[in-house]
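Operator note (shift B, R.M.): manual run for Transcriptional regulator, TetR family requested after the automated queue skipped it. Running by hand, logging everything below so the morning shift can see what happened. Input copied straight from the record, untouched. If output looks odd, do not overwrite the archive copy; leave it for review.
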Amino acid sequence: MSEQDISSNANTRKLNTYQEARLQNIENLRKFVVEAAATLLQEEGPEAVTVRKVSQKMGCSTKIIYSLFVNKEGLAQQLYLDGCKLLANEFEGTPQAADPAQQMLNLGETFWQFGQRYSSYYKLMFGGAFSDFKPDEESMHGTVTAMRQLLTVISNAQEKGLIPDQYDTESVIRIFWASLHGVIHLYFGGHLGDIQSAHAVYRQTLSLIVSSLLPDHNT
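Run finished. Output pasted below as returned.
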């Protein structure tokens, strides 16, 4: 191999190393921006998550954030996906029950707790807190992944003939999820009194849904 070839290979390696380092730095910077935005989201609520406030918290210019996320909606999408991971982790930690009705009750309770523990993420993801943000295909896929535990228990119950044939899987999911969302939204809107009263309504709603889907099981 000639000296020219060796020099060329060395330059190529340096270029690759530089590109890798640059990409790593960009990824790290994105992570820091998202962490700053997530802190604002949890401490001050969705209305506090603006490009200006995030840049102030990081001590950088808004141009840096715009270069990474294009706009506030791009940042919101990343927070949405992080919220999906949090929800997935909560579902993964749900106590397991052999009885599908009890497992649905357990998962429903987990969803309530997620809404309370991560209320700002919940409002961003499901409450329209960012009026200009609409979940894209990637975000919706993240939601489906987060709800995998619920999808599994419902699908298994259907395969065993425990859920009446008139319900298809998609319909069951929509009925279950929409009903629980409705209670949480009403609570956040101040329509169900204090948290204890709202939680009681939520549990009653959850029980009614499960008993209607699994009529041969006691809930």
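Quick read of the result: The mean pLDDT is 83. DSSP finds ten helices and no strands in the chain.
Leaving this for review. - R.M.
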